[in-house]
Amino acid sequence: MISDINCNVNFAAKGVDMNEPILPVSMPRGYGGVGIIWNTNINHLIRPLDDGSEKIQCIELENSVRRILVVSVYLPSNGSKNHQIEYQECIDELHEICQKYISTHHIIIGGDINEDLNAGKPTNQRKEYLKKFINEIELKFDNIGNTFINSKGCECSEIDYFLHNITPDILEEGKVNPQMPNQRLRPLSNQYEYKLEA
């Protein structure tokens, strides 16, 4: 487990096979797990939440200004036959979670969104459904460059994001401090570190 590698961290995680174990060699593409890792010195500020299916992990972070809902998400890729339905179901689940917490929490959703939100990229039903959710919850995000390169190395896209409703005044107070590297990523997903300071 993670704590075996570093005793100074704690985590909350879910896997797609948490209810019915699947051998790693049998795991279908796009059906991994999600997790949130934090330093043990802030254990007293964090409460793992039960909200979300196996593709969504939530924690609550106590903050002197306003509590923060932190969500790790792994949205379905477009590789399955039912990808459109699966994607919309996950977005609906995120929408429900956000509606539950939006009046009492700031919200940060991070992870593999499996859609490129760059303005110049072609649109599709999945992207439009995601954009509708982002607009309804009034979330913000930054386009920072490619975060995924396919296995052949010939197609790049930006599919990993942090969606949030953190206001600039909170960032300026140093209560939440997102730190993202300005370098191109290796062909792996979820390469950005998001650092929360309480």
From TrEMBL:
Sequence intervals crossing the membrane: none
* SUPFAM superfamilies cross-referenced by the UniProt entry: DNase I-like
Q: Where is the Endonuclease/exonuclease/phosphatase domain?
A: 68-164
List the Gene3D superfamilies hit by this protein, alphabetically.
Endonuclease/exonuclease/phosphatase (3.60.10.10)
MF GO annotations: catalytic activity
Which InterPro entries has this protein been placed in? Endo/exonu/phosph_ase_sf, Endo/exonuclease/phosphatase
Its recorded name reads Endonuclease/exonuclease/phosphatase domain-containing protein
